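Course exercise 7: structure representation. Students receive a sequence record and must write out the corresponding structure in token form. The form below is the worked example handed out in class, using D-alanyl-D-alanine carboxypeptidase (321 residues). Read each field label carefully; the graders check that inputs and outputs are placed in the correct fields and that the protein name is recorded exactly as given.

STUDENT ID: A-19
EXERCISE PROTEIN: D-alanyl-D-alanine carboxypeptidase
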Amino acid sequence: MGRKILGIILLCLALLIIISIPVALFTPVGGTVTNLFSPPTPTPTPRPVLTVRGTPPAIGSKIAYLVDDDTGNVLVNVKGRERVPMASTTKIMTAILTIDKADLNQVVTIKQDAIDEAKVHNGSNAQLVVGDQIRLKDLLYALMLPSGDDAATAIADSVAGSQTQFVTMMNAYAKQLKLQNTHYINADGLTYEGKDGKPDPNHYTTGEDLVKLTRYAMRNPLFAQIVQLQKYVLPANGVHHAYDWETTDTMLSTYAGLTGVKTGFTGEAGYCLVFSAYSSGHRLVGAVLDAKDEEERFKDASSLLDWAFALPVLPPPAPKQ
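STUDENT ANSWER:
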């Protein structure tokens, strides 16, 4: 009799255990009970980041914006949301839009309008020759290294059929990338004058938007490879002349760890520079706009990078409750 009762008790216990398992695993009540007997989950330690201490160095450029690319932390912001013309840093959008949307193996025939673009507006050029047939991918080097306004026009014509249609694509892509304070009227950043003889004010960006765009572009391996080159040689063949393109970004040869990106200048925009660099495990992306001359823009960028790379790496502050 005793054995029978013991057997019934054991059977009931077994059934209770079987019933309690799904309750413990799949219901809120069970989870609460289980947690009572579980060790507390340790609070994850925040990843240390470059942390601003003190003030950035004084600079001559009117606008500066610098970001820790690994975390998105803004390290320097001097009028970073002020809309201003950006000269040839416009070509960052021209290049990444072409890389993302076009067939880079397409062969482009250089037309007279490309040559005229640089001549009429007193722009820089890649010495392209009318009638030459050049692969679209190669034209990206002509665009970004010598800052060819002729290359920008040739690219726009080939990708969209005309510069006007290409500009429509640029503005649509700016919206897609959430560049809320950016608008383009051409593919190269040259100053266009209105009927009143004054510069068209509808070509603008901000330091913040320019850095945001560049951070996106630098994640593309081809773009990143192009903008860190100091020279690109395209040998002659049966359909085009030989070309030897050198970068306008002389800081690439003077600042260790610099990985690009683009210079710019017009009378309205002043001297501009978008830059990226890598050192001690950190990647920084920044822009200085409206400097008084080439020396000032490079000096300002160097000073900002030196200061930022020397910042302490500390855990971020706890979020406010």
